[in-house]
Amino acid sequence: MSITVHITNIIQENVIKAIQQLYGETIALEQVQVGATRKEFEGNYTIVTFPFTKIAKKKPEEIGEELGAYLVTQVDEIQAFNVIKGFLNLVVSNGFWMDFLERIHHRTDYGQHPANGEKVMVEFSSPNTNKPLHLGHIRNNLLGWSCSKILEAAGYEVVRVQVVNDRGIAICKSMLAWQKFGAGATPESTGIKSDHFVGDYYVLFEKKFQEEFKNWQQSVAGQQVFQSRKKSDQDETTFFKEFKNLYFNEYSALGAEARAMLRQWEAGDAATVALWRTMNGWVYHGFEETYHKLGVSFDKYYYESNTYLLGKDIIEDGLAQGIFYKKPDGSVWVDLTDAKLDHKVVLRSDGTSVYITQDLGTARLRYEDFGVSRMVYVVADEQNYHFQVLFEILKRLGEPYAAGLHHLSYGMVDLPTGKMKSREGTVVDADDLIAEVIAEARANSQERDTLSDVSQAEREDILRKIGLAALKFFIIKVHPQKRMIFDPKESVDLQGQTGPYVQNAYVRIQSVLRKAEDSAQALLKNPKSLEYNTLATDEKDLIAQLYEFPGLIQEAARTYDPSVIAAYCYTLAKSYHKFYHDFPILKAESEAAVAFRLKLCSAIAHTLRFGMNLLGIEMPERM
Question: Residue 491 has what pLDDT?
């Protein structure tokens, strides 16, 4: 039997034969409900017999007994059965599990599906170039990377891209602050990481702006505005808090300079464009360092400075087709009320693009670049409505990839103290967080003194793997759509449902194989393991967990949910830790038992390594 043919399919097909033979009726495959047997009952898979009562004209329990007897007699893979009310619990034979283990224990790529001929694009990261990557970007990057790895394991050809938001008023704020207050400083002259260097000027702009705004509030002009524009029940503090954005756009000297710089950039002013390129170059260099630390990479970068004019031709085509309509002021809109999405502007009255226009053009450009059948956008849930609109418009335009669009919406990441604010500098920078978790791993290692016999370079590499596993697993184990609170102390706890806990199961297996030395390789190839036919419940449960792994990869790919793989790896590691404590391996009762358990250990190690790699987590050989 091929590993790709799941035993539940065998069960379903034989139940169909049984119903035909026992009751003279033909049923469809989807009528046979097969699930995992509940822990409190004996068995591996359970069939629900209630749907067959009308066909058989018998009670569910009677049907269960008759079906069970048929399956045990006719299906080699089924060893025994029991019936609990309307549920038929099937016990899979030891021979099935042994044969399965024999075929997969040596496979380092177990779980990998063959190519399915489909190409999918995953867009993630997509930062602004006015600040370094922070905790929110870490969740985005980890979800995007693991999603792309899972899709690859499910058989897809994957293209990883990002759109860099490298233009706009926020970038001009950093540029202006450096121009006014930087005194020619550079990342090299200050020793500050280059993206942090630019981000510091973004924070500095906000600080200077707040000082200006506060002084203006106390000025004659500010008080005149307050008196003339306040609502009857507004106090001064509330008024100026709500007036901040309008002040920036209409009264602020710094705001006027930033807007003028943006206009100069759009006009192609040589000096402004040169400064923009220099500061963005600093940021890109810093980003790449952080991406390297996180272990993520991209096949193509799209830049908003190149894409912000895209999409206008699509709007013209849509107007001709009657998909869009033009208002008297010249603006172009789309009516999506029949899809419960309201009316949406797609082109301003002055002919300039909005974000949806750019995204329409970028989607078509990507299809032309790669010919993908699916596009996955990893973007926070604050943009849910935007992507509903984008996907609906692309569907109405008849784009060939429109049926394969997915927004991997994820909840924002908060700190225990509340939301992060980039302008105020109250964010957790990605680089600082990575350094913190590695430092915590180093402190824990020193307490246990387990790495004193390895070289300094090897020790640092192990600590890097442990620290990053703690960080990545903590974030990925949470379902993407859930908003999460990131507690730095909890994230670096190396016990419990954590990445290092899973890593430790792998390390334990490597230790067992090292102790066995040459004999381990001989025993792994030893056919005598097949003579071990007294499988304990825990051993069968471990093999059964391994058996489900390829199916869970498909589920995670279908739902774009890496937390499925994280939960699986944790459960498998937990089961192995229990097995390690309860069963002798190298000192098992017979050569056949030793060979079997080494093969089981080997299969678990390969599966944990492959599964954690799908999450972007490396496995150390020592801890």
Answer: 65
- Reply yes or no on whether the pLDDT at 423 is more than 60: no
The dihedral through the CA atoms of 199, 202, 206, 209 has a sign that is positive
Task: Choose between 320 and 440: higher pLDDT.
Answer: 320
Please give the order of strands across the beta sheet that includes 325-326. Answer: 325-326, 332-335, 343-347
Residue 196 to residue 16: CA distance in whole angstroms: 64
User: Residue 2 — pLDDT band, cuts 50, 70, 90?
Assistant: very low
CB 111 within 8 A of CB 553: yes
End-to-end CA distance of the chain: 39
More confident of the two residues 3 and 263: 263
Residue 67: both structure tokens together = 């079906």
Which residues 6+ apart lie within 8 Å of 236 measured at CB? 217, 226, 230
DSSP 44-101: SEEEE-GGGHHHHTS-HHHHHHHHHHHHHHH-TTEEEEEEETTEEEEEEPHHHHHHHH
pLDDT at 501: 94
Helix (H, G, I), strand (E, B) or coil at 505: helix
Please tell me whether residue 563 adopts helix, strand or coil conformation. Answer: helix
**What's the confidence (pLDDT) of residue 453?**
83
**Token pair belonging to 73:** 């007699």
Surface-to-core class of residue 180, CB atoms within 10 Å of its CB (0-12 exposed, 13-18 middle, 19+ buried): middle
- Please give the angle made by the CA atoms of 600, 603 and 608, to the nearest 5 degrees: 125
Q: Has residue 5 got a pLDDT over 90?
A: no
For the cut 70, the answer to whether the pLDDT of residue 233 exceeds it is yes
CB atoms under 10 Å from CB of 565, counted, come to: 28
The tokens describing 214, both together, are: 């506060």
Distance CA 218, CA 215 (A): 5
What is the helix (H) or strand (E) element at residue 162, kind and residue range? strand 157-164
Average pLDDT over the chain, rounded to an integer = 93
The CA distance from 173 to 162, in Å, is 23
pLDDT higher than threshold 80 for residue 84: yes
581-594: per-residue pLDDT in tens? 999 999 999 888 99
| Neighbour count for residue 386 (Cβ, 10 Å) | 16
Predicted confidence (pLDDT) per residue in 370-417, tens digit: 999 999 999 999 999 999 999 999 999 999 999 999 999 999 887 776
- Which are the contacts of 90, defined by CB distance < 8 A and separation ≥ 6? 11, 37, 43, 44, 45, 46, 47, 68, 71, 78, 80, 81
Question: Which of 168, 161, 162 is closest to 131 using CA atoms?
Answer: 168
Residue 123: strand pairing partners: 161, 377
402-416 burial, b at 16+ Cβ within 10 Å, e below that, comes to bebbbbbbbbebbee
- Taking alpha carbons only, the member of 62, 73, 77, 66 closest to residue 22 is 66
What does the DSSP 8-state code read for residue 112? Answer: P
Q: Report the C-alpha gap between 72 and 87 in whole angstroms.
A: 16
**Residues linked to residue 376 through DSSP beta bridges, in sequence order:** 122, 406
Please, which residues have CB within 8 angstroms of residue 540's CB and are 6 or more apart in sequence?
44, 92, 94, 97
